[in-house]
Amino acid sequence: RAPTSRHSMWELALLPWVFVVLILVTYWEAGTYGFHHTYWAVPAILLPSAAWFIRHHYTRGNNEEVILGLLCMVGIVISLAVALYGCFAALDEYRALSQGASYFNVLPAEAAASKLDASTIVFTNTTLVDVTRTYGFTDTRDKAERTYCAAPVSDGDLYQQRIQYWATGIDCCEAMSNFACFRNRIQEGAHGALVVRKDAKHMERFHRAVQGALGAYDLTVGDHYLLVDWIEDPIGYRDGLWRGTTTVFAVFAISYLVISAMIGVAV
After folding, report:
1. Whole-prediction pTM value?
2. Cβ within 8 Å of residue 196, ≥6 positions away
3. Which of 86, 138, 139, 237 could form a disulfide with 245 if both were Cys (CB 3.0 to 4.6 A apart)?
């Protein structure tokens, strides 16, 4: 007769949940502090281990261990999906924004060269995006034919020709009008910005849009200028990424405990 082992309801409910919590905490730490190797190391260890446990006890007829292993495997897979989504959708951006400097009460005429280490900028209350000098660049070689938009950040002076900061976005303007690249949909009340740091292809196309605006509106730039993503509250947005992910992880862990307890009772 094959050996068997009996597990209590609490073992069936709590052990899978412990894996869920450990995974969520591990990825929360990894995303917050930039331990990106953890993203792939954890599933590379846990998934084969759980699969071996299930197969090992299945071949020996230990059905209760097989059930326990399957419950743990399900918990691991679901929590990995939630954790990876949280890291890629929010915590990676939070980490990137946290590594840079934050500047406050910045005038649009201030030299961008002194703020190249910035990740978030809060401009003075009179600062706005000059949508009348919009330029949209479309690379016809790109199959998607996306439009890369740029417009000067200004204090409202129509004669300001030297531009230090450029509000940018993708597919949110026409060739020379209708700039609508605002995170909060409208410009009113927004005086903040996230410094744009994308891959080389995107940055090159944004720079092409800026160069187009220089020629179209007789503007100039210095050796260094910054591309920004216009937003109402950049600091609140950055901190919200962390708080939102923490809340999602906590709610998911509590919900999974309830579901796991129900499964434990049923089994």
Report:
1. 0.83
2. 168, 203, 206, 226, 227, 228, 229
3. 86
